[in-house]
Amino acid sequence: QVQLVESGGGLVQAGGSLRLSCAASGRTFRTLAMGWFRQAPGEEREFVAAISASGGSTYYADSVKGRFTISRYNAKNAVDLQMNSLKPEDTAVYYCAATNSMAATLRTGVGDYWGQGTQVTVSS
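Structure (tokenized):
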């Protein structure tokens, strides 16, 4: 079993930056592909970014490409999401996810483990 705990959410002005972190429990972290999703009020959950188990491959939603960066730190069992040039439309609850499958699988919204989420609010 893997437990995921997100942190780093908060309130920021448009154009600002935030860094989200996801801490994972368990010794299998190095074998998991990791990702971030978000869900705005009244909207469906959407894919944001994913990274392969090795860290060699990354995937991004078009809406965040060039602004967000996903990174993983296998020695710390952690994955981060650096968010720059934030926009009000980035406001959402952000969730960390993990899968025993390939990172590309996360783009379809399928994950084996999910965190509880952290709120990100971007004011205009």
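The longest helix spans residues 103-106. The mean pLDDT is 96.
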